[in-house]
Amino acid sequence: MIIISHSTADTEAVGKALSERLLAAGKRHAFLSLRGEMGVGKTALVRGFAAPLGCRGVKSPTYTVVNEYKGDPLPVFHFDLYRVADEEELYGIGFDDYLAREGYCVCEWSENGGDMLPKNRITVTISRLPSGENERQICIEGVDDEDLGI
Ligand SMILES: Nc1ncnc2c1ncn2[C@@H]1O[C@H](COP(=O)(O)OP(=O)(O)O)[C@@H](O)[C@H]1O
Ligand SMILES: [Mg+2]
């Protein structure tokens, strides 16, 4: 499905709708792949996604690769693979172990994850639109029922 976002708050609301939907469906695992250029709003979407789980203070984990938020009822593992050069490095941070744990993984720059990414994932691609500084197109693929109520 494709959603047009007119503001940071709109993009956060899309993230929120996604995690609420996963929670409502009783999912204990999810992997969200976030694509799009620098400054497009990937972290904003993660902020919204993490909110229903009670996670606050979401910041891009660019220098640490992964931030772990305790969350209730599930943790959120927020990856940023911008600086990850190869799969070896991902292996080193225990990427596999995170995938095996209960919780929701959200991953910026998942393009750098190669074959390490799980096959069963939701892909969110955000792009700028020429119609305005704050306009974004958000494309969501891999959600069973595409009706997010937004
Ligand atoms: N429609 C929008 N959706 C998301 N962010 C937006 C939007 N319009 C403006 N912005 C701004 O763009 C920036 C996006 O930053 P961020 O989420 O860190 O991007 P990324 O993680 O993709 O590098 C923020 O300053 C945010 O306020
Ligand atoms: Mg970011």
Provide structural commentary.
The protein contains 4 helices and 7 strands. The mean pLDDT is 93. It has a 7-stranded mixed sheet. The chain is α/β, with parallel strands linked by helices and 150 residues long. A hairpin with a 7-residue loop joins β6 (122-128) and β7. It has a single domain (2-141), classed as Rossmann fold, CATH 3.40.50.300. The chain has helices at 8-24, 42-50, 87-92, 95-100; strands at residues 2-5, 29-35, 66-69, 76-80, 103-108, 122-128, 136-141. α1 (8-24) crosses α2 (42-50).
Topology readout:
Layout: E1 2-5, H1 8-24, E2 29-35, H2 42-50, E3 66-69, E4 76-80, H3 87-92, H4 95-100, E5 103-108, E6 122-128, E7 136-141
Parallel strand pairs: 2-5, 2-6, 4-5
Antiparallel strand pairs: 1-7, 3-4, 6-7
Helix pairs in contact: 1-2
Magnesium ion (MG) binds next to helix 2.
Task: Briefly say what this structure is.
The chain is 25% helix and 26% strand. It is α/β, with parallel strands linked by helices and 150 residues long.
Properties at a glance:
binds adenosine-5'-diphosphate; binds magnesium ion; alpha/beta; Rossmann fold; 150 residues; globular; 4 helices
SSE string: EHEHEEHHEEE
Give the neighbour order of strands across the main sheet.
1-7-6-2-5-4-3
Number-wise, the strands total 7
- Reading off the top of the CATH hierarchy, the class is best stated as Alpha Beta
Residue share in β-strands: 25-35%
Describe the largest sheet: 7 strands, mixed
Domain count:
1
Question: Under the CATH scheme, which architecture would be assigned?
Answer: 3-Layer(aba) Sandwich
